[in-house]
Amino acid sequence: MISVAEARARILSAFAPLPAETVALPDALGRVLAEPVVARLTQPPFHASSMDGWAVRSADIAAATADAPVSLRRIGESSAGHAFGGGVGPGEAVRIFTGAPLPDGADAVVMQEDCSADDATVRVGRAVPAGRFVRQAGFDFALGQELLPKGRRLTARDIALAAGGNVPWLSVHRRPRIAILATGDEIALPGDPLGPSQIVSTNALGLCALVAAQGGLAHNLGVAKDTPDSVAAMAKGAAGCDLLVTTGGASHGDYDFVRDVLADRGVSLEVQTVAMRPGKALMFGRAGGVPLLGLPGNPVSTGVTAVLFLRPVLRLLQGLPPEDDRPPLRARLTVALRANDRREEYLRATLAAGPDGVLTVTPFARQDSAITSLYARADCLIPRPPNADPEPAGALVGVLPLTDGALSI
Length: 409
Known about the structure:
The protein is α/β, with parallel strands linked by helices. The chain contains seven helices and 25 strands.
């Protein structure tokens, strides 16, 4: 057996970011930039008002007070999309609305609440300095400025920013195409009739959802029977994909054929077993030009190993660092942990806010790798190194969140 760290290193070394493709801005949510987004205009492109009021020359109203307002001649109006065509001279004012271009000659805006007006005259009851309530041209960004860096996963806010920069097309990494193949005579698809010795397949659909949530394209190949011919035939459906992920069949039992099928096809496995719990039966190699990641069949083992090994591969293929770059998260144990054995352990747990504001973490009392109901409730994993000492309640421990912001808005 090899360590989790060594297994991850071997697996990740087989992958590189996928090539770039160009997509329309409306289709770019969740994609990862292969090139920076650069502004194609200056925003705002002109000096603009940030308030409804009156565009004035600040020097004209320097002495204005509520008790002694300054009267200016009203000469026009500037609204969003309809700029005033002339200029503001001494003793003049232009009615202006939020977002409208500031007329030439004006250098400030007085709020409408500080003014009164009729059809010909504006009475200004407060002095304002030059620049008050004016957004300077380029206040947000300038032509040629980098708005979004290469390697960023695009959120809804990023889409809006790129639109503001007048960028209709983006260069992004191609989505990873991941083939998913479940194996086992004992599993049936949800909704299908169940035989007396069968259970419902959960792994493939869960993996497809994880791939989609991480920005990939999942291809569910179905369920292969426990025969070498069935496994080999259905694995051919992974042609053209960037990775084939199998569940089950990776152990050494009489009916675990995935490993044997690979051996018959001359595949050299770089990873065969990993010193971890859950998930010891994990393998990685290359099948017919397509890398293969074989995950264990127990559903929680599948989920945990997918988080530890498949998720980093999906990130790397899209041009992201394999690990989320957020600071490591630590939480206070609510219960004591026993000493660990020689395998690295990943305890399923829930997070909560403690009375002092510090996060608390509670591992489930039952950690069996077949209890999917508890795994669905888990917020995080508590990694425990091999031969770890007991941890008392109240100790701070590192936790691995089961979300990484892939679907951030």
